[in-house]
Amino acid sequence: MSERLWLVVPAAGRGRRMGAALPKQYLPLAGLSVLARTLARLHEAFPEARLCLCLDPDDERFDPAAVPFADWRRVPGGAERVDSVTNALAAIAGEAGADDTVLVHDVARPCVRAEDLRRLASAVADDAVGGLLAAPVADTMKRDDGTGRVGGTEPRDGLWHALTPQGFGYGLLRRALAEAVERGVAVTDEASAVEALGLSPRLVSGRRDNLKITHPEDLALAEAILAAQETPDSSADRNDSA
């Protein structure tokens, strides 16, 4: 892939599961908004990257002062994540090369570490397919029987939690998303669209504290994680499973 790096951050969600008056990207987190915290982490790792920030066209809460990047643009977000990412890729069609690296990151993951970001970017730059940050499953996995009871225990060997960012070449990612939508494939993340092409993205081990803020209790947990990451021993690798 090319050394030129694009960042795509979908941030058009309404955050209904949070049950808050504001979309979760605007909720306060350690003195800043979740959005500002996430962008600051990305900028720490990639200050020269080009950013596409996908926002609801009717979003009036957004403050450009939250964006630390010199080269960035606002892109209309869509109804679903795949729509937002597709819009971002279309917006840079005249500038991005087919081999340019595109990293897509959840706005609700403000705790991602700069070293994980750089490691992923390095890994996908040398990979013909691309890849994603992920963490091996550490918990026992249960499958329900449809009635709220355990239907079985799933072996956790070989299972990973998909995280973000997820990184792919511009041309490959745009083709994967377009074909997935055309074929009616459920696109839960960018990797799933690439998988639908018959390709196997690389799993790049990431820290478990790369939390996605989804439920109300996650906000307090994210604040605790950010505080813990400031301690001298926070750089230790904590990906080992119990």
From TrEMBL:
InterPro entries: IspD, IspD/TarI, IspD/TarI_cytidylyltransf_bact, ISPD_synthase_CS, Nucleotide-diphossugar_trans
GO molecular function: nucleotidyltransferase activity
Pfam families assigned: IspD
Reactions catalysed, as given in the entry: 2-C-methyl-D-erythritol 4-phosphate + CTP + H(+) = 4-CDP-2-C-methyl-D-erythritol + diphosphate
Pathway it works in: Isoprenoid biosynthesis; isopentenyl diphosphate biosynthesis via DXP pathway; isopentenyl diphosphate from 1-deoxy-D-xylulose 5-phosphate: step 2/6
Keyword Transcription assigned: no
Transition state stabilizer, annotated site positions: 17, 24
Function of the protein: Catalyzes the formation of 4-diphosphocytidyl-2-C-methyl-D-erythritol from CTP and 2-C-methyl-D-erythritol 4-phosphate (MEP).
Identification of the protein by name: 2-C-methyl-D-erythritol 4-phosphate cytidylyltransferase
Organism: Halomonas salina
Gene designation per UniProt: ispD
